[in-house]
Design a protein that fits this description.
The complex is a heterodimer. By secondary structure, chain A is of the alpha+beta class. Chain A has 15 helices and 16 strands. Helices cover about 50% and strands about 20% of the residues of chain A. In chain A, a hairpin with a 5-residue loop joins strand 7 and strand 8. Chain B is about 35% helix and about 25% strand. Chain B has 8 helices and 10 strands. The mean pLDDT of chain B is about 95. The chains are: A alpha+beta, B alpha/beta. The structure holds adenosine-5'-triphosphate and magnesium ion (MG).
Chain lengths: ~400, ~230
């Protein structure tokens, strides 16, 4: 570093402490603004991320494939020929999980009463990879792969129908040939889901049993694909649509549950709005402080200019002060904001105390929100505040360098 | 060649909505190397304006100022700054020093601008401070020093880089009579020892009687310009 630069920085350092209180206050304002932006964007990012995680427990796949026409009326006769051989055909990204389901709507009956339900015929060993809530069995266990007449139900349904593990349950559905199909099942396990709709409505049976109920031979209604990066779902769905042709349709989660996509866009734009607002206020604050602190020393700058200080050096002297203020407050703000975002990314914050989740336009959102700890985002927010603080110093500096030394000297 | 030439210089302060103020109405004078001279005159007669123009702190409305033969009107602001750094020392009436710098750092400021190393600066400042009786204050902050001590530091800063001329606008105005006289005597000695030209302004007869040459200004014009034999 050149000696001129080091001496400007050294002088700047001493100058910012001339009015200690003012400097501390303006640095706090910058720091707090930065903390606010970092924490808030972590929170909102966490919420969006969380909503995406909820896809699992909402029982929505990242990409779902149906025979075209099934979704309109949920006509169980509109089925896909057995999809087990498709895994290879689809050329999915590495790490992807695929599973075929047989779907039906019907009525579950116990000694206590009956409830409308959604029946999912699944492969017992594969389904927990697709439906995250099946990893949370609160009573009983996942049925064995060859268990044809076992059934898994949610906690709420178990409560409504007064069912316990081992109890009998009758399922009645409308068959593909429009007749009624019914069978008796035994509850093997009860699962927990933060989504009341799932815990109350979804009933899992074996694929074989579901086919038998519906009077279908080798067919499925839905192919579920889970991938590592949910953000890649749209592209994958598009790719699959071209590959599969007109008889099938592939839909991404964004299309299946548009509210989540909107939520993402919406949270992104409120973070931006808040950041803009905070930065604007912080910028004005620094501008005001810097302007005051520089202009009240106009005469002193006049003396320095009289002694032969070049205008460029006057600029450096003022910017050195912005540099220190920016460095200290951005470092402090980034550290505090980063720590908060990091801490709450582990601990989480419960926004609706006493509950596990809430519904937002049909999407289930966990009320325990874990902030997203994103070093890249923290670095971006910090860099922005930093550069803004430096730029704000230019204006007061220009107010001085614009003056002739004689004019500066006249100011008291 | 004179160290300073002022050639038919005028300075009109024209501010919007106000009648223009003619601070200088055509001043011509030449200052030879080694002079010890004063500008006298009533308040508002143009002393500060003239000193500012000589030092390149301000630009004349017409006419020309030359320092060591260099016409100031042709210089950029950067070149003017460099010229002041290299040839001109300044002492102002008060608040001359940068409060966050120590006395030694203040005195070494011009040397620093010239790129003189820290050690050499310290040595030079030390020598001057010794000469001026400021040794105990090397590392004192200006606010902890008396007005007279501060003015001596300002004089030290003005002369330490061996300028051609030192301009001092009412250097003793904020000092008591005895301190002011001591400061004047010190400047006089430095003028003799080092051949540095001093131009100062004042109302004070004590100051004026110490000058070799006295230029009286009235209403922006030179009315008398007399040399005194000593
Ligand atoms: N920046 C300015 N704008 C307008 N008028 C000015 C300005 N500076 C000086 N003047 C006017 O120019 C005239 C000369 O001012 P100057 O400061 O040179 O006088 P001075 O002899 O130094 O007076 P003093 O003894 O009070 O310091 C005065 O009438 C003053 O009002
Ligand atoms: Mg004056």
């Amino acid at each position: 570093m050149s000696t001129a630069l080091t001496s400007a920085l050294a002088l700047g350092w001493r100058n910012i402490w001339r009015n200690r209180r003012r400097t501390v206050i303006s640095m706090s304002a910058i720091g707090v603004g930065l903390v606010l932006v970092i924490f808030y964007s972590g929170l909102v990012g966490g919420m969006a991320q969380d909503a995406k995680n909820q896809l699992d427990s909402a029982g929505i796949g990242h990409v779902e494939i149906f025979a075209r026409g099934f979704r309109d009326k949920r006509d169980v006769a509109v089925a896909m020929e057995d999809a087990s051989g498709w895994r290879e055909k689809l050329r999915l990204p590495p790490g992807a999980q695929v599973g075929a389901r047989v779907l039906a709507r019907g009525l579950a009956t116990s000694a206590r009463g009956n409830e409308p339900v959604s029946v999912l015929g699944v492969e017992w060993d594969n389904e927990p990879k697709l439906s995250a809530h099946l990893q949370h069995i609160s009573a009983g266990a996942l049925p064995a792969p060859d268990d044809v007449h076992g059934v898994l139900i949610g906690e709420q349904l178990a409560e409504r129908l007064a069912l316990q593990v081992g109890a009998k349950l009758r399922l009645m559905v409308q068959r593909a040939d429009a007749e009624m199909g019914a069978d008796l099942f035994r509850v093997r396990g009860v699962f927990h889901s933060i989504s009341p709709a799932i815990a109350q409505r979804q009933v899992y049976v074996s694929k074989a049993a579901a086919r038998e109920l519906l009077g279908l031979s080798e067919a499925s209604h839905q192919l579920v694909v889970q991938i590592d990066d949910p953000d890649a779902a749209d592209a994958l769905a598009k790719e699959l649509n071209t590959a599969l042709g007109a008889r099938f349709e592939a839909l991404s989660w964004g299309e299946l549950l548009p509210v989540l996509k909107r939520l993402e866009a919406y949270t992104g734009s409120i973070t931006l709005a808040l950041a803009t607002f905070v930065y604007f206020l912080v910028g004005l604050g620094i501008l005001n402080t810097m302007l005051m602190s520089v202009l009240e020393r106009t005469r002193e700058f006049g003396v320095l200019m009289a002694l032969g200080t070049r205008p460029s050096r006057v600029l450096h002297l003022v910017l050195a002060e912005s540099f220190w203020i920016a460095t200290l407050s951005a470092a402090g703000g980034a550290l505090t904001g980063g720590l908060l975002a990091w801490y709450f990314s582990h601990a989480g914050i419960n926004f609706v105390p006493g509950t596990e989740s809430y519904q937002f336009e049909g999407a289930t959102i966990s009320s325990l929100i874990k902030t997203r700890f994103s070093p890249a985002e923290i670095a971006r927010a910090t860099a922005f505040v930093y550069v803004m603080t430096l730029i704000v110093g230019l204006y007061p500096a220009s107010r001085i360098t614009r003056l002739l030394p004689a004019e500066a000297l006249r100011k008291t | 060649m004179p160290v300073i030439e002022v050639d038919n210089v005028t300075r009109v302060y024209a501010e919007k909505g106000q009648t223009p103020s003619h601070a200088l109405r055509g001043v011509t004078l030449a200052v030879e190397r080694g002079e010890f001279m004063a500008f006298a005159g009533p308040s508002g007669s143009g002393k500060t304006t003239l000193l500012n123009l000589i030092g390149g702190l301000d630009a004349p409305s017409s006419g020309e100022v030359r320092v060591d033969g260099v016409a100031l009107s042709g210089l950029s602001r950067k070149a003017l700054a460099d010229l002041r750094r290299d040839r001109i020392g300044f002492v102002f009436q008060s608040y001359n020093l940068v409060p966050v710098l120590t006395a030694a750092e203040n005195a070494g400021y011009v040397l620093e601008l010239k790129g003189v190393s820290a050690k050499e600066r310290r040595d030079k400042v030390k020598a001057i401070f010794e000469r001026m009786g400021l040794s105990p204050f090397l590392d004192s902050r200006p606010l902890k020093m008396s007005g007279g001590q501060q003015q001596r530091v300002a004089v030290a800063r003005a002369i330490v880089s061996q300028p051609a001329v030192v301009l001092a606008d009412e250097p003793t105005a904020n000092l008591d009579q005895a301190t002011g006289a001591a400061l004047m005597d010190l400047m006089r000695e430095l003028n003799r020892e080092r051949g540095i030209t001093f131009i100062f302004s004042s109302h004070d007869p004590m100051v004026l009687e110490r000058a070799d040459r006295l230029v009286r200004l009235v209403d922006g014009l030179v009315v008398t310009d007399e040399k005194r034999a000593r």
